[in-house]
Amino acid sequence: MQILHKVSLKVKEIFFEIPGEIIKPRLAAALALCLPSHTKIYNVYGASECGIVSVYNIKSAPELNTAVIGSPLPNYQCYLLDDNMHHVTVGEIGEIFISGPGVFKGYSDPTLTEKALVSIPGIKEKCFRTGDLAQFSISGELTFSSRRDFQIKLRGQRIEVGEIENVILASLNCISDCVVTKQHDDIIEEDYLIAYIITSNKTMIPELETHVKQFLQLNVPSYMIPSTFMILDKLPLNSNGKINRKKLPQPGYSTHKAQHHNGEIP
């Protein structure tokens, strides 16, 4: 948060790049407070395989709490499809497929190319399968949801872990970051959710799980409430600066409760 206080007041425009690690709503709101009122804030959406596809000017404070990425730039088309490759309706979440002149021709590996560039009925050119999930608003704007990789199924229920993470972040001001994943308990042979939390207030760790769970109960269905909470000093990152979920520590026992981890990632 100290970085935010050093932002130059001469800044006229600032861009948040999506996908990657989406900027947390709280950080976006805090950053906006540190900038002069005339500063324009944009969400930029794209990928290496297709370049920049959309640029959206965030016009109001509520929009900082979502990842609105707007409409495709000229000559680009975005399609939202479900698991059966059918177009979704307004408000439904689907995977983003992109077509246009900026879409790449393929990887050096033909197998990867076949998975990434797909044919959609009724569309002449092949489309790039992004792996990103989004939904259309009534006005036709796209709102980024999460990576398809982060969409999980637990006891028959489809869960967007990003939704859980945002609720946890909103529960306490001292929580600066959070990651939710699905784990498997080999002892009781059951899948469960675990929340990894970064907090600046270590003194309230004993009460943190209770407070966060109560807040979750008010905002999400019961099947979306993690059964385990781990407090970390930091989240493991990969070489690209993104959260490395494979390096997150595992709970040491099957009785799920809040645990503190010193941040040393094995």
TrEMBL record:
The cellular component terms of Gene Ontology attached to this UniProt record, alphabetical and capped at eight, are: cytoplasm
The UniProt GO MF terms for this protein read: phosphopantetheine binding
Which Pfam family, just one, is annotated for this protein? Answer: AMP-binding_C
Q: Where is this region: Disordered?
A: 244-266
Domain AMP-dependent synthetase/ligase positions: 19-107
* GO BP annotation list: amino acid activation for nonribosomal peptide biosynthetic process; secondary metabolite biosynthetic process
Q: Which InterPro entries match?
A: AMP-bd_C, AMP-bd_C_sf, AMP-dep_synth/lig_dom, ANL_N_sf
Q: Taking every annotated instance into account, which residue ranges of this chain make up the domain AMP-binding enzyme C-terminal?
A: 163-242
- At the top level, the lineage of the source is Eukaryota
Q: Know the name of this protein?
A: Uncharacterized protein
Species annotation: Didymodactylos carnosus
